[in-house]
Amino acid sequence: MSVIAFIGTGSMGGALARAAAKSPLTERLLLANRTREKAARLAEELGAEVCDNATAAREADVLFLAVKPQGLEAMVEGIRSELSARERVLIVSMAAGWTVDQLTSLIDSHPVVRIMPNIPVAVGGGVTMLCASGNVTAEEKALVKELLAASGMVSELSEPLMEAASGVTGCGPAFAAMFVDALADGAVACGLPRKEAIAYAAQMMKGTAELLLSSGEHPDALRDRVCSPGGSTIQGVRKLEEGAFRAAVMNAVIATWEKEF
């Protein structure tokens, strides 16, 4: 069991702290935040301890850095003496745009794991990608995966592929929300009340995703099962193809990837 600390308890840090609190590998959970009251509210919910940044750096076996990218360097400078006094602390950063090499240069000799979680981690249905510096052991990677398991899927990727995947995992929720909204608009145009239209569309997306994940079925195969010959679904698919639906979605993902470079 390990002492786990979070510096930063905003929406993403708080969601992952909730996941870590559920792990049997968490012995103590320490929470530090610029606004102490915010950390205190979360600590009360999770049975955690509120501390300052220096205490988190001194006592944690695994230290999650959940601060905004532009504030990371200053925050690390503030705990540098505590980190320097430690032989080994596993640092887990979720600062967007900070590569493993940049994090390693900033944090010196400590092992570093870079993670990229997405918004649905808040409901245990997210995707968190990770990559690590060369001095992170297999056991430490497994520990991070276990600590975040309650937040959803945790997947290790090479760092270059993380940027490609972020177009699906990080930006995808916005695209999915647009699709749910469009489905609901269509249903409203056909007479369905908006509240029900949104609920039905969102539940359909959730159920379809769970079906694909549990079965391992290719999406095309699932589509073909729904499209009866001469039926209404194939007519809807035809309209989507006329509107270049696939190309629009593919181009959206590619555009997010190109923005990274």
* Biggest sheet descriptor: 8 strands, mixed
Determine the strand fraction and express it as a percent band. 15-25%
Q: State the separation between the terminal residues, measured CA to CA.
A: 40 Å
Number of β-strand runs: 8
Number of alpha- plus pi-helical segments? 13
Strand order of the largest sheet: 3-2-1-4-5-6-7-8
At the fourth level of CATH, the homologous superfamily of the largest domain is NAD(P)-binding Rossmann-like Domain
Q: What is the total domain count?
A: 2
Topology-level CATH name of the largest domain: Rossmann fold
Annotation keywords:
261 residues, alpha/beta, Rossmann fold, 13 helices
Gist of the model:
Helices cover 56% and strands 16% of the residues.
Q: Could you explain the architecture of this structure?
A:
Helix 8 packs across helix 13 (245-259) and helix 9 packs across helix 10 (194-215). This protein has helices at residues 11-21, 36-46, 53-59, 69-78, 80-84, 100-107, 138-147, 159-169, 172-189, 194-215, 219-226, 232-242, 245-259, and strands at residues 2-7, 26-32, 49-50, 62-65, 90-93, 112-117, 126-132, 152-156. Strands 3-2-1-4-5-6-7-8 form an 8-stranded mixed sheet, with helices on both faces. The chain is of the alpha/beta class and 261 residues long. The two termini are 40 Å apart. It has 2 domains: 2-158, Rossmann fold, CATH 3.40.50; 172-259, ProC C-terminal domain-like (ProC C-terminal domain-like fold, Orthogonal Bundle), CATH 1.10.3730. The chain is built from 13 helices and 8 strands. 56% of the residues lie in helices and 16% in strands. The mean pLDDT is 96. 30% of the residues are buried.
